[in-house]
Design goal:
By secondary structure, this protein is mainly alpha-helical. The chain has six helices and no strands. The chain has one domain: Up-down Bundle (Ferritin). About 80% of the residues lie in helices and about 0% in strands. The two termini are about 20 Å apart. The relative contact order is 0.15. The mean pLDDT is about 95. The chain binds MU-OXO-diiron. MU-OXO-diiron binds next to helix 1, helix 2 and helix 3.
Length: about 170
């Protein structure tokens, strides 16, 4: 069974993942107002991915005979300066999430909770991927600067993103 401390920390992480989902959906709404439908699509898939992360933790707490306690989700920003700012904010946010996951992992190590190690290893790896993906987008946006044509090409590219298969993600976690 999970310790109370670890259970509380995982419940907190569920809330953080739900906030991430909320944040990215808010970013999708912003991109829709600019008719940057590729960026909006990318953010919407990001919303789905974050929801899947929350549910992975939700299921884990239940599998360990724990108790999920949901909390209020903070309101995300609704106005953004520019597409570039949005992606920079997304990168900063993912770096923050990486810190949270690392802290959670450290707690599992300190408590010698091996099943939690295994679960959290998946999240540690996922954060490397999350940061790299968004960092690449930010780098490309730095290159195009204020070039509108470049932005539209980028929009087209992000519109090609396909959803991760839920089964593949589960297999990676198991
Ligand atoms: Fe759930 Fe984007 O980390």
């Amino acid at each position: 069974m999970l310790s109370d401390r670890l259970q509380d920390a995982i419940n907190q992480q569920i809330n953080s993942e739900m906030y991430s989902a909320h944040l990215y959906l808010s970013m999708a709404a912003y991109f829709e107002t600019l008719s940057l439908t590729g960026f909006a699509h990318w953010m919407r898939l990001q919303f789905e991915e974050e929801t899947a992360h929350a549910l992975k933790l939700f299921d884990y707490v239940n599998d360990r005979d724990g108790r999920v306690t949901l909390q209020a989700i903070e309101q995300p920003p609704i106005e953004f300066e520019s597409p570039h700012t949005v992606m920079r904010m997304a990168l900063e946010h993912e770096r923050l999430v990486t810190d949270m996951i690392n802290n959670l992992y450290a707690l599992a190590v300190a408590e010698r909770d091996y099943p939690s190690h295994v679960l959290l290893e998946w999240f540690v790896t996922e954060q490397v991927e999350e940061e790299k993906t968004i960092r690449d987008i930010v780098d490309h946006m730095d290159i195009i600067g204020n070039d509108g044509t470049g932005l539209l090409i980028m929009d087209q590219r992000l519109g090609d993103r396909v959803a991760e298969e839920a089964g593949a993600e589960d297999a990676a976690a198991e």
